[in-house]
């Protein structure tokens, strides 16, 4: 009986792994299948967040609109460094609808001064040059008086 339960559990685990692989393969197929290509318009591809103090978390949101007639997929979204994390619309974006990439930049992982960061995006569009979303700003040193109290 224990062997049967173990066998069934192993089958569920294997099936789960196979489903994940299939999903990734399908996204790659959608990205390269020209019959599924659409068009996209970005509201901003460059954002200046101004001046922030060292230690602040900076939230940046990029918005895109599916301007084509097929679903838009944000296949890959990769920040250029470990100081930025990004979450994005993972489900297909219907024609005429909007999707978002919400990034959070941790200034503690950067140096004071001017910063320029990028997020690389791959979509199922006919333009083979993936959009590069950029954000920049200034990081001022943390307040030394506040740091001394801690």
What would a concise description of this structure say?
By secondary structure, the chain is an alpha+beta fold. The chain is 25% helix and 41% strand.
> In which range does the helix fraction lie?
10-25%
Radius of gyration equals 21 Å
What is the string of helix and strand elements? HEEEEEEEEH
CATH architecture of the largest domain: Sandwich
Describe this structure in words.
This protein has 150 residues and is of the alpha+beta class. It has two domains: 1-32; 37-143, Immunoglobulin-like, CATH 2.60.40. It is built from two helices and eight strands, in the order αββββββββα. The chain is elongated, with a radius of gyration of 21 Å. Mean pLDDT is 83; it is low at 15-23 and 144-150.
Which SSEs are present, and which pair or pack?
Elements: H1 2-32, E1 40-42, E2 46-53, E3 57-66, E4 74-79, E5 84-88, E6 98-106, E7 113-123, E8 132-140, H2 144-149
Parallel strand pairs: 2-8
Antiparallel strand pairs: 1-3, 3-6, 4-7, 5-6, 7-8
Name some characteristics of this structure:
four-stranded antiparallel β-sheet, alpha+beta, 150 residues, four-stranded mixed β-sheet, 2 helices, Immunoglobulin-like
């Amino acid at each position: 009986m224990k062997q049967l339960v173990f066998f069934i559990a192993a089958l569920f685990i294997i099936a789960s792994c196979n489903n994940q692989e299939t999903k990734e393969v399908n996204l790659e197929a959608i990205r390269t299948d020209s019959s599924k290509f659409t068009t996209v318009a970005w509201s901003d591809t460059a954002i200046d967040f101004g001046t922030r103090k060292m230690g602040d978390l900076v939230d940046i949101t990029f918005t895109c609109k599916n301007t084509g007639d097929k679903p838009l997929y944000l296949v890959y979204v990769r920040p250029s460094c470990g100081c930025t994390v990004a979450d994005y619309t993972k489900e297909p974006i219907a024609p005429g609808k909007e999707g978002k990439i919400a990034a959070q930049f941790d200034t503690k992982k950067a140096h004071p001064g001017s910063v320029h960061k990028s997020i690389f995006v791959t979509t199922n569009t006919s333009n083979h040059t993936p959009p590069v979303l950029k954000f920049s700003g200034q990081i001022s040193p943390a307040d030394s008086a506040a740091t001394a109290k801690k």
